[in-house]
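note to self — DONT lose this again. spent like an hour looking for the file last time. sequence + predicted structure for the chain T wanted, 249 res
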Amino acid sequence: MSRQWFLPELGRRLRAARERAELSVSALARKADVSRRYITQAEAGEANLSALKLYELAQALGVPLRDLVDIAPRANRGERIALVGLRGAGKSTVGRRLALELEVPFVELDQRASEIAGMTLAEIFQVHGEQHFHRLEAEALEQVLGEGERLVLATGGSIVASPTSFARLRESCRTVWLKADPKEHFTRVLDQGDRRPMRDRPRAMAELESILATREPLYAECEIVVDTSGKSVDEVVASVQRELTARAR
């Protein structure tokens, strides 16, 4: 594994763990007995951390050391690109266009999980619940990964709520968070003709904002973040391609 890949990924994990712990940079620096600049450089992937410093940071963050350093080599990730984000992020639309540009297959993970169950997603959640869905999702992910190393994968918005599947996704694919503000997520879903966000949910917008706030630190663990707010599909696809190319050098 090259330093160019390992240190930025380590930095992303440090930042995500700090945000989940609700610690500021200064607070973490005090707990780990290091300088604020050291934390900033580490999260930017610019600090060559010693084993002892990594241990102290893990202790201060309250996470196992392996969660920070057990990083799979990039070599096996091939050209698998996984799009991550809340419903309404544009994963399906952007994914199809990106797959067309790259001349690779496009796969929707939720659809694969539905096919395995022989039920619609709504039926899976209604009959079996969320935990069963995540088991199907994990099975579907392994199925997709076994089909080759060149594809674009649109994931479900809740995959980040399944730590094992999300970790598997990050180690096997180049992950891209399609980020947007809550109002844009909401509007896009409604524009697609999906009235579920409003049905019997007078506080639907507030609920969406809460879900996004909870998941943002997890989405931020993706290798690439592309803000889609106010952008056309073509602009988003071009941004994703630029970011993928820049990190491949």
